[in-house]
Amino acid sequence: MPPTPDDIRGAATGTAPTPLSVLDLVTVGAGRTATDALRTSVDIARLAERRGFHRYWVAEHHSMPGVASSSPAVILAHLAAHTDRIRLGSGGVMLPNHAPLVIAEQFGTLEAMAPGRVDLGLGRAPGTDGATAAALRRSDRLNEGADDFPQQLAELLRFLDDDFPDGHPYAKIHAVPGPVQATSPGGVQDPHRPPVWLLGSSGFSARLAGSLGLPFAFAHHFSAQNTIPALDLYRASFRPSAVLDEPYALIGVSALATDDDGTEARRQVMAAALNMVRLRTGRPGLVPTPEEAEAYAFNEMERDFIRTWNANVIHGTPDEVRSGLDDLQKRTGADELMLTANAHSGDVRLRSYELIADAYGLPGTGA
After folding, report:
1. How distant, in Å, are the alpha carbons of 71, 89, 357 from that of 78?
2. How much is the CA Rg of the chain, to the nearest whole Å?
3. What burial letters (b/e) apply to 164-198, b meaning 16+ CB within 10 Å?
4. Least confident of 69-83, 86-100, 172-186, 313-327
5. Mean of the pLDDT values across residues 265-274?
6. CA dist 174 to 73, 97, 170, 181, Å?
7. What global pTM score does this model have?
């Protein structure tokens, strides 16, 4: 059964202007391990569920020492075992890196594990550098993979719905778990299938999501200059579908709140910015400590990059973060805000989500 708007739309709680959600990059700080990072992810997912965040997504990245989310489906299975209600999903799986049948099988399995609360967010970027993308895809024709995205998406949707037409080469191939089980003798199939979201940082996926009537997630946290044009394009391109009768767009937002006057937030944000400088200059590594960032001798080009980068990170006291998020939502008209907390310390990230929940009076407690 195709998803319905109720499988996609969330409800705002407390005084938040929209539903609030979490994007987790499973970052690994200097002196920490991937095990530490994944334990923090479980802690944040549990907190997000208690406090009424709507969904929790993890993003596919590769060959980055400071990001331990190379296998979203595996992480989501782990999170499903430690939560009960919160929606879980990919933000996203990079479709050109994988065979559509494999993704349909993985997310059909996740849906069987956590019925009615799995999202499948898809991107067309590699989530890594070109050489790594070539290793993933066993091909050096990377542009071809991105250009074929609409066709790959159509194939994936066919596998998810098990509705290839008669005569198609894949008509007798079925993604299992999936709808074919309902048509087998004695079969009973779960009525849900994961809603598909398109992710983007430019206009391509915005237009495609709109034309297909799918929900859209925009990466404001690293492409802020394109946010409003992409959302405008999505809304202008939107055509009602069986999935949605009107547009629904969320944006990913970097946000970090701390208990003090904002000093610690600024220190952690600078550490995360240094990590981005190193990534953008071909030196990816673990997320540095604030002390390392304070001691680092930035050159003028790096300082210019950091000023631009940090201008789009909402950080400071809980009240400052709440105000910044409110302003951003008003400017963009986003239907949902998905928060990502980038910091060296997992404890700081966990505390940030709790403070933001408190600032908006979300239900429950962080205990």
Report:
1. 11, 12, 24
2. 20
3. beeeeeeeeebbebbbebeeeeeeebbebbbbbbb
4. 172-186
5. 97
6. 19, 20, 8, 9
7. 0.94
